[in-house]
Please model this.
Amino acid sequence: MTHKRYRRKAYWNRPTMGWWERLYLPEILRGLGITSRVFLRNMGKWMTGRKGALTTYYPEERRRDYARHNRGKHVLTQRPDGSPQCIACNMCATVCPAKVIEIEAAFDPDDFAHPKYPARFEIDYSRCVFCGLCVEACPEDAIRMVAEVPNLPSGRRLQMWIGKEELLTWNPQRDVAKPYPPKNPPLQGEGRVGMGSASRPALAHPAADLPLEGAGVRPPTSASTRVPQ
Amino acid sequence: MIQDLVVYAVYIGFAIGMLMTFGLILTWVERKQGAVMSDRIGANRAYVRLPFTQVKLVWWGLFHGLADGLKMLVKEDFRPKTYDWYAYMVAPWVAFTPVLLVFAVIPFGGVLIPGELIPPLADWFGDRTYTMQIAKLDAGLLIVFAFGGLTIIGCMLAGWSSSNKFSLLGALRAGSQMISYELILGLTLLGLVLIYGTVDLDDIVRQQSGVVLGVLPAWGIVLQPFAATLFMAAAIAENKRIPFDLPEAESELVAGYFTEYSAMKMGLFMFAEFIEIAIIAALFTTLFLGGYNLPYMHDGGFSFPGGREIHMNHGAVVATQVLVFLAKVFVMCSFQILVRWSLPRFRYDQVLRFAWKFMFPLALANLTVTAVAVWLLRTVNA
Model:
């Protein structure tokens, strides 16, 4: 039984030091030169009234160049009639790792299609970690995050709550998921049917009563009856 | 007699005030300079609000030092269950006091003639003169090393009495590192002592106001540039700062020998470190940068190499000397902070190898070359 002597693998880009680097002191001085050059440059900028740093004073100063997909403040999407699309299912509040979302559900007997709606929807921005899990969890695409940073009512940590009114101010002109503003508000009068009215109840799925367009297109049915292709 | 007492009380007040101010300011300078060096803004949130108004004084975050002090004073004073309670309590003071004492022998100005400076008190002071130094001792440099060596006892006591393995490891590291580098500190200065022929710090400063080679000021850094570099490196290692901060390497030892200290006791260790920055800067200024004098300056004014003389009156000389000393000390403090924010930390074996296999032979070589050169010059001149 012979042992092969362990040889450290030599990489092609293994750093090697020349005699100049081995002298140590010149390289130290070079490093100090680099840092002091940066110091003098930034200090000169500060002295002449310019900004010598890459960071921003956050609440006083906001950057214009947030990424387009920056996870900034939360918004609640709206139905064409302006009511929140949220059905108060509490999924976002459940998935939230910081437990910052508080939803109080309420019952709206007039809206047959969406009888449950949030009476209160509040987010505590003092604890929010902006992870975006609430957006992922939402089954209704009701909560989203836009690039702008939240406009907090106060810098005090007990008053950094944002409520439903603020979250519903999002009113985009163009949206990939749904037309904003809606071209023809179709469900006015149909969707908001009273419980006791004798007319046809609003369908849960608005596509179900679309006319069939050709034989090859199947109307979407519920998942339990769908035949695997 | 009373006059002496008054003058020395003023000196001591100046020294303590200066060191405390430097200790406070340096916490801020360290943060802010590090921030500017790395394209950041730095500490800028602490403020003092003027009472009954909404005016908040931020002053570039200058109040962060005060906020730190306040926090340390009002924090819970946690005490570990230790069998050596007395050593635990006394250790921060043992680490802190010698640092202050070192300043006693460092001259921060030339000769002070109070009678000339304050004419109304001319009769009372008579023609008394004082060197601007708290204790004018012939053994100045030796006192520096004697007190500088005491700091280590505080670190060892703290590590030993904390009943914590991290503390003990930190103390062991501090002990071996400080002893190694103290040796190098002494060896580098021996060359300077050979050249000046004295260990009296005030005398060393006076000898530096001459010229060498016709034009260059006879500063220690001109005569012994190599020793100056080694001294600075060894002094930073002695102060246990990055790149030599192994005794408190936070990724390995939590906080080293003061892991178990909290509140103001921990603050004393920190304060001692910051004051020692100022002390090292003052020592470096005194030994290598011409002390309190500008180039070609002496107690009577300037005498330039071309033979030109500028006479200054006594008040102007004293003011210039004190201000120049403070400015030089501040620049050297800033240099140490530059080093701290530029260089990465050594590994522990590298620290000791660096001391014994790199700096120690270099310091010896420097001493040998200096001794031979001094002997040659003496024999040639004689």
Q: What stands out?
A: Confidence is low (pLDDT under 50) at residues 190-229 of chain A. Helices of chain A lie at 19-22, 25-47, 91-95, 133-137, 164-167. The beta strands of chain A are 74-76, 101-107, 116-124, 143-145, 161-162.
